[in-house]
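Problem: given the chain below (100 residues), write out its structure.
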Amino acid sequence: MLAFGTVVRVYEATFIFKPEADSVNRGQVLVKEVFAKAGGTFLAEEDMGERALAYAIKKVERGRYFHYEVESEPTAILDADRALQLAPDILKYLIVRKEA
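Solution.
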């Protein structure tokens, strides 16, 4: 629940999951739970498919890319960032504020 006077911004988040189907499913569920718990609302979700990585990450050569647009408060994004840092199914991710 957003309090009166809070700032809500739109963020773009791109995640690279391990390519196995169960890792992708667990990673997607985790991302959605973390942002929902932080008070975020998903505006868009795009499966960008499986691609070869430029370099191996955690000994993995390929990754499944997903792109999300999330509407949330800045402090909630920081909380979500902390929660996602140690997720084993997420190889890399980047969350940036979308330009208006």
